[in-house]
Protein 1
Amino acid sequence: MSKLSELLKCSFVAAALAAGFSGDVLAGLNPDQFASGFVWRDTDGNPIDAHGGCVLSWQGVYYWYGETKTGRTFLPDCNKSWGGTRVDMAGVGCYSSTNLYDWKNEGLVLAPVAGAASDLNSGNVVERPKVVFNRNSKRFVMWMHIDSADYHEARLGVAVSEKPTGPFQYLGSFRPDAGVWPINVADADNTAGKGKYLARDFQNGQMARDMTVFVDDDGKAYVFYSSEENFTMHVSLLTDDYLRTTGKYSRILIGRSREAPAVFKHNAQYYLITSGSTGWDPNTAGAAVANSIFGPWKELGNPCIGPNADKTFLGQSSFVLPLPGSNTFIFIADLWKKWDLSNSRYLWLPLEFGGDGKPVVMWRDNWSLSVAKTANKNQDTSSDP
Ligand code: GAL
């Protein structure tokens, strides 16, 4: 860990950490500081409403996509098999920024659709939208988790747009990799019975819930998703147009029940941060590293340091944003408010690499990009152990 990081560690302010929800007094993005847990307002002064999302950097502009969570939170229905809280699905929103602090609301880029037949009906689930740019088609492709209100459908959805600000044309949803075994299927023999879901869903396609998309340096893209009743994660190669899965996939973190994947690359290695599987409630984050994107992935333990580090600072991973032309990464997470989902907040913290080469996310009450850049620079050149 760098000396700067050690210094920053001493600057925790316990009060703000207690819950990460210290009130609405401070605008978290004002004017050049990230303060996790506070209300972050857009350039119109409205709270930013983009959860479980991602940030795409394209032609000098950042686009922040996320679940629009307006409306009343419905409390659990104990008569149903799945008893979580939810809001009506209100589509996917987009904000743009040139500095990551000031966000202009670009409106809904994928709107709900009336009628029970549509995946995008407000009674369904559309979560964790991830948008990537396809160099071949020059189009923007959005992948997302599509589900029924009780989460039994477990599908991937795809939409496409000519512009980053939409509108995205919804192409439909599907269960990936039907009729093909993963490239490391032999591992199924070692999963204490949990590989049975892989076999169960072989014919009709694998379950897909929490997900992300990663585009490698060579332009190949992969979707990572929690599968097999959320026990095991899959990595699937996408077609060159990014609109389908190819059928080449592997099982990773087998039987580990990981969710909320966020993938990035550093020094030619792939990194993956995930959460545990406890719904909207926070749990311990886990990092993993691999030389090949299909694995094997080696688990590195919890990357978080600071108060509530065993609960991801009360958040859940959503995305890791590499800042172009630097070694700086931002760990992006959701601070879900389970009983008031529309009021959920954001957690953005610098992600550094420790002397042991492991990713580290250290709590900071507030920080600016210059701090992150310095920290990473120090890390890269430091001879500290
Ligand atoms: C979490 C998941 C969220 C949402 C939630 C519903 O495990 O990461 O995206 O689906 O469950 O309870």
Note: The chain has four helices and 21 strands.
Protein 2
Amino acid sequence: MRKGILTLTATMALLGSTVAACGDDSSTAPADGDKAVGKVGVILPDSKSSARWETADRKYLKEAFDAAGVESDIQNAQGDKSNFQTIADQMITNGAKVLLIVNLDSGTGKAVIDKAKSQGVAVIDYDRLTLGGGAEYYVSFDNTAVGKLQGEGLVKCLTDQKAEKPIVARLNGSPTDNNATLFAAGYNGVLQPKFDSGEYVAGPDQSVPDWDNTKAGTIFEQMLTSEPKIGGVLAANDGLGNAAIAILKKQKLNGQVPVTGQDATVQGLQNILAGDQCMTVYKAIKKEADAAAKLAIALAKGEKGETNGTTKDSESGADVPSVLLEPQAIFKDSVKDVVADGFVTKEELCTGDFAKACTDAGVQ
Ligand code: BGC
């Protein structure tokens, strides 16, 4: 690992001086320091498992690279694993010096990291850790903390409802996303003791392949058929939560059965305002994008970036230098915080029927 970084640093320094000597032909001069910074390629995973990738990550990453005068190429693999690899290959061929990837699973991520390393291109795992991958850096949120907030959020909503021995269903994220494993560790840490004590009853518990919202609806419909008395739903993100809410609506159970989420999407926040969703987890993606862009630029310049910890790769055992950010739980009375932070606008949130709920919730 260390050796890898040193080799890369040497390569970068060499490339940097060559580019500088030949003159920089890109229209944006490297404003960030005096060393030429190569292009950065970003591969987002899809646009369906969460709105965040296109509405937040793409926007904030582009802004961060533009502000630093660094050329970026941001593409979306649209959930297609072979496309993911093709995009990475093209980025490397087109001269990317650093890749920032959100893997579709660890295998896809590792294939890209191996290829990149063989070409002297550094890789940052963005949001999802590639197990056994060996990326230079990992930038994300404290994902176990995300899950803990979801578990505690569900407990708060069930307590507010004075639910007695509620049957709790779990709609977990993709089994191939390490984040989903961490989220589950977080919320199971809260729920398991309640199952063990008999305060809550463990209901159906299933993972949703690729975080597919349509599959989530089918899975939840089966859950509710097999267990019509589900009293609470731990859904791992807003998309899965919305799928469960749609099924609950068909049975006129929405609003009576608390459902969790994650990502503070417009849809999730509207479900909260409507009283159909109990909470979401807000992750300030601007901070994540800024941190990743800073590290990418440092790598492209052959410098060491700033991190605030390490993350254990459970497959290789490596401690990956990381930037991990703190998530925030959002309930109806704190929806306004997400708007105040500029993550969603009042205009997109407070449309039509939601105007009154926004006013009632103090959204400005
Ligand atoms: C991300 C979540 C997102 C999910 C589905 C996870 O890896 O951390 O924010 O909702 O993937 O895209």
Note: The first strand starts at residue 39 and ends at 44.
